[in-house]
Design a protein that fits this description.
2 copies of one chain form a homodimer. By secondary structure, chain A is an alpha/beta fold. Chain A has 2 domains: 147 residues, Rossmann fold (3-Layer(aba) Sandwich); 84 residues, Orthogonal Bundle (DNA polymerase, domain 1). The first copy, chain A, is 46% helix and 11% strand. In chain A, strand 4, helix 10 and strand 5 form a beta-alpha-beta unit. Chain A is globular and about 55 Å long.
């Protein structure tokens, strides 16, 4: 598949479009640190919450649990993280508000400008494991110009299940190979390619650590294009 | 449910957001009239195509046929309309292009300005029987500022089945009554209310005829708000 045959772009969101680690640490520091006078390592808090993400989805992917929205999994995981960090006494409303920190993640500095350029040539859809309301609320706050919100909740299948990728291409009315996944994670891109989609790697070298991040520093050799930012991707796709 | 409790707006599209009748007549006149030298009543052509819409969906709603996208139903219906109007000799590509006239419908004059105002206070989602690609392509051409594209294909249920309405509210993360359907059709609004949603009537007095349209000239008494345009609705919702 040549790049000029791509007709639609779909995006991984957590880590690719938005900086979940610093955003969650910021929210936890505000709500629990400044708000409650607690002293904890809020970066470690964010990482611990995120580390519970794949195991929680795996119970759904394996069929051991029916499909539930990511908001539900995030909240269950949050209760475990609060226990790990010995934080108690929060009201249900405070827990809900902290859980919805995932609806308030900040974009990377190049995200909005890059998406705006890419959108002139391609329809842009989210292809995230985040649920629709999460992606909609995030987009309204951050100004992300989606043409459609697709992904796990719409497909009722969490990535990397092939149905998640194929459902997005089908709903956008294009063949799988005409649908490109943009992601900062090689595992996601490999699964997209196995399902038949095209793949664009965008490096996000501080997603999981401020420095010396080793994960996903280089693109998997099977990607169709690799970029250092959404602006660079727009250059490479001729937008 | 008071108007101030509404948290999200969903929209019927064909007839409410866009003027399907004049748009389809325009496309048919261009492709078949100007393009092929055929003389037909293109307004009647548009009405005949639209009249086959409900019976085609009813076969899916009744369970006699599995879910298929509206693009598929539109194309099957188009073949019947072409036969009715004694038009033959079109290539498959020409038939596809004419079928995708439904992706190129024009908004009513107040649509974009009204939606832009409404969007400042509410997330806006399509809740149409049109498939995702149809709504996305229409929105990109017409500049419709959707936050999400929901409706029949995402719910895998055609309106007026209650699942179509309830799925939209659920995906937007709001209670049914906090989700308002905006529509020019009282039957649609009644079904939304039965499902538990709120309902806003917007009068579109030339949807099916240039003058003397009798259908849906007045709101059903059960709606929560009635307006004469999207701008008027924005006024009435305080946007």
């Amino acid at each position: 598949m040549a790049l000029e045959d791509v007709k639609a772009l779909t995006f991984d969101v957590f880590g690719t479009v938005v900086d979940w680690r610093r955003s969650i640490a910021r929210e936890a520091a505000a709500l629990l640190g400044a708000g409650k006078g607690l002293e904890r390592d809020w970066n470690a808090f964010a990482l611990s919450w995120r580390n519970r993400y794949q195991p929680a989805m795996e119970r759904v992917r394996s069929g051991n649990r029916g499909f539930v929205k990511l908001d539900v999994l995030h909240r269950e995981n949050l209760l475990e993280v609060l226990e790990e960090f010995e934080i108690d006494g929060l009201t249900e409303a405070e827990i809900d508000h902290l859980n919805f920190a995932w609806h308030r993640l900040d974009p990377w500095p190049d995200t909005v400008a890059g998406m705006t350029r890419l959108r002139t040539n391609y329809p842009l859809a989210s292809l995230s494991n985040g649920n629709v309301a999460l992606i909609v609320n995030m987009a309204r706050r951050a100004g992300l110009p989606w043409d459609a919100v697709l992904g796990a909740e719409v497909a009722r299948a969490y990535k990397p299940m092939p149905e998640a990728y194929l459902s997005a291409a089908d709903m956008l009315g294009v063949a799988p190979a005409e649908c490109m996944l943009v992601a900062a994670h090689n595992d996601d891109l490999k699964a997209a390619k196995v399902a038949g989609l095209s793949a664009a790697f965008v490096c996000r070298p501080t997603e999981v650590a401020d420095e010396d991040q080793t994960k996903d520093r280089e693109p998997w050799e099977g990607v169709d294009v690799a970029a250092t930012s959404f602006e660079d991707l727009a250059d490479k796709l001729g937008c």
